[in-house]
Amino acid sequence: MPFEVIASDRAPAAIGPYSQAIRAGDTVYLSGQIPLDPASGELVEGGIEAQAVRVFENLKAVAEAAGGSLRQAAKITIYLTDLGHFATVNAVMARYFEPPYPARATLGVAALPRGAAIEADAVLVLG
Prior knowledge:
By secondary structure, the chain is of the alpha+beta class. The protein has helices at residues 47-65, 86-96, and strands spanning 4-6, 21-24, 27-33, 73-80, 103-108, 118-125. Helix 2 links the parallel strand 4 and strand 5 (103-108). It is globular and about 40 Å long. The model has no long low-confidence stretch (mean pLDDT 97).
């Protein structure tokens, strides 16, 4: 089965040797998104809430470029440099998803690219 590269100019370009997403059949693997503004390529300002919103907006843009939506997310992984932001990130995530929620893991990490406080990736299943 051939892979299809998914790309959107509404999300930041990859900052390394990877694709924004890869589609394999009905499954789309969205690469991790950090809170980079797609227009400027700079990290958004405004704290963890603003960063979380930008991350989910970036994921949403890539999901839409794949012909889907975040509602088709089967799995989300969130990486936080401070697990004290867990509740804030949950509140932001609730703006983008509704029940049944995707499966999710949240991991505390020492650091993220560009000094971001949050990164998230996702797996979509298109029907």
